[in-house]
Amino acid sequence: MMASQDQPIQNVSWDGQTAIVTVAGEIDFSRSPDLQRGLQEVVDRDPQRILIDLSEVAYMDSSGVASLVKLLSRTKKKDITLRLAGLSEKVRSIFEITRLDGVFDIYDTLEDAKAGN
Amino acid sequence: MTGQADQTIRFELPSDPQLLSVVRAALEKLCRNVGFCDADTGAIVLSVDEAMTNIVRHAYAGATGEPIEAELTRLRNTGRGIRVRLRDYGACRLAEGFDRPDESKLDPAGDKLTEPGGLGLHIIRKTMDDVQFAPAEGDGTVLTMTKWLERPNQEDGA
């Protein structure tokens, strides 16, 4: 599924029961609701794993992080594996400031997330 | 280098979340100009963005046409750093406890992170050296945040 450039979720591809979600741009208060909606649609399809590729995300604020926390909560309830990949230093820092870097499974690259390395 | 006059950039913008990126961009350049490293610059920009978002969400209850005044000051007289002053004309948030972060709302297990005064205020307090909320003349709240690169000498005052 390809999306318009205005949408934070640029692409959702499937590899068997694994959903790979590509997020891009600035994830702030104006775009987080769209991110949250798009992630919920992915959860509703009951994958075994969701991999979120954040390598194209230039900026994220607490509303973006809150969207991912909600996703984490929902995936835990449905026993879905959730992994984040490709965080820039700037995006990673918000997870560190908020002490959430230890709550998520974070991988350097999407390939690492696929392999679980 | 200190002992020079401070420099201030002023914005008046409507409370439209889509316009907050304009202030973020200007602040990022100013922080780099002051000499902050990438990590500090990112944290300062994030803090101010969180503060502006709180104004939109809570002082104006999501209304997009209400005024926000933002002053970004490059401090270089008695120290080096940056000071950001945000003024709104909405409901005074001091009465709602916005100046007191509630750590219990930082529970990463659920939806509490989206509650008012939670994550955003935690980020601001953790990043900035000084954070002051005050009631504005008339309606609204003034939030002043300072981050030092080089603190002023004690006898100079801050």
Write a short abstract of this structure.
Chain A has about 120 residues and is an alpha/beta fold.
Number of helices of chain A: 4
Beginning-to-end CA distance, first to last residue of chain B = 16 Å
Give the low-confidence spans of chain A.
none
What class, by secondary structure content of chain A? alpha/beta
Report the largest inter-chain contact.
Answer: A-B, 22 and 28 residues
Largest sheet of chain B: 5 strands, antiparallel
Largest sheet of chain A: 5 strands, mixed
Bin the helical content of chain A. Answer: 25-40%
Written overview of the protein:
With 117 residues, chain A is of the alpha/beta class. In chain A, 37% of the residues lie in helices and 31% in strands. In chain A, α2 links the parallel β3 and β4 (81-85). In chain A, α1 runs parallel beside α2 (62-77). The longest helix of chain A has 16 residues, at 62-77. The termini of chain A are far apart. Chain B is 29% helix and 27% strand. In chain B, a hairpin with a 5-residue loop joins β4 (130-135) and β5. With 158 residues, chain B is α+β, with helices and mostly antiparallel strands. At the A-B interface, α2 and α3 of A face α1, α2 and α3 of B.
List keywords for this structure.
heterodimer, A: 117 residues, alpha/beta, 5-stranded mixed beta sheet, B: 158 residues, alpha+beta, 3 helices, 5 strands, globular
Helix and strand layout, with pairings?
The complex is a heterodimer of chains A (117) and B (158).
Chain A: E1 9-15, E2 18-27, H1 32-43, E3 49-60, H2 62-77, E4 81-85, H3 89-97, E5 106-107, H4 110-115
Parallel strand pairs in A: 2-3, 3-4, 4-5
Antiparallel strand pairs in A: 1-2
Helix pairs in contact in A: 1-2
Chain B: E1 7-14, H1 20-34, H2 38-59, E2 67-75, E3 80-88, H3 119-127, E4 130-135, E5 141-150
Antiparallel strand pairs in B: 1-2, 2-3, 3-5, 4-5
